[in-house]
DNA sequence: CAGCCGTGGGG
DNA sequence: TCCCCAAGGCT
């Protein structure tokens, strides 16, 4: 065949498409987990619920709670019709229970302001309680197939390694990372959405934070971090989050009592789960302030 | 923007 | 045991 023009030299974008994007899309096609919120029949509400639950919480612990949640509240309106305390109770031990409150508040907002339908618009999603930049982009992409830059901890780590050549991304999201994410995003919206979930999956299953399974990685040969000899992270030390003895642990103990109790409890029931009086009172006050607990007219405590 | 907000599994 | 950290958001 004859061509009237010589094929142009590959641009950097085309190199990236060939070396990074295509292999990761192929890898995802073969290795993607079958997760409920990824199935074709998954509703935007199911996706939104999953995203809130997955914030800082592993998939393995989300699965059962997500299923029970969707069974009980298949629509935002169904959840909005119940007291927020029921959301907190059904949240179980997923952690960060304020997320349950935010999800309930989001359900109320969706019901009252969006006719009961999860909005598809990024700005409208962002306005929902508990929905930040990441979650808004994720829902727009995964529930509605939009072309969005989705930058979660997995994506940031994969891009840091494969493109930037560092073991870990910066502590906070940088302009450079946003630009990089935008530059890599395929032009076609459905492909872009798949790309976003594919990079996340690679980060979750292969390009993990500790002991990455590089031997399984589809882009190992193109990985800047590998090509640089896999230098270890040299930034400022990452803050280790202490937990034992903290207010967080104390709040968790107190809320567990309320969660396991139908109705209200006497304060003595709370006093026995934490020895330090000062810390316990402070934690209880913070739960009340957060709206995770209420004080009844009888001086007892309960979920809202 | 640094600090805070839960919980449990794996190495 | 202890340490790391897992699809962030909010103030």
From TrEMBL:
Catalytic activity: Hydrolyzes free adenine bases from 7,8-dihydro-8-oxoguanine:adenine mismatched double-stranded DNA, leaving an apurinic site
Protein's UniProt keywords contain Metal-binding: yes
Gene3D superfamilies registered for this protein in UniProt: Helix-hairpin-Helix base-excision DNA repair enzymes (C-terminal) (1.10.1670.10), Hypothetical protein, domain 2 (1.10.340.30)
Enzyme superclass (EC): hydrolase
Domain HhH-GPD: 53-205
Protein name per UniProt: Adenine DNA glycosylase
Organism: Nocardioides faecalis
Gene Ontology molecular function terms on file: 4 iron, 4 sulfur cluster binding; 8-oxo-7,8-dihydroguanine DNA N-glycosylase activity; adenine/guanine mispair binding; metal ion binding; oxidized purine DNA binding; purine-specific mismatch base pair DNA N-glycosylase activity
Similarity-based family: Belongs to the Nth/MutY family.
SMART domains noted in UniProt: ENDO3c, FES
InterPro entries according to UniProt: DNA_glycosylase, Endonuclease-III-like_CS2, Endonuclease3_FeS-loop_motif, Endouclease-III_FeS-bd_BS, HhH-GPD_domain, HhH_base_excis_C, HhH_motif, MIG/MutY
Pfam families listed in its UniProt record: HHH, HhH-GPD
GO biological process: base-excision repair; mismatch repair
EC number of this enzyme: 3.2.2.31
Keyword Metal-binding: yes
Cofactor annotation: [4Fe-4S] cluster
Keywords on record: 4Fe-4S, DNA damage, DNA repair, Glycosidase, Hydrolase, Iron, Iron-sulfur, Metal-binding
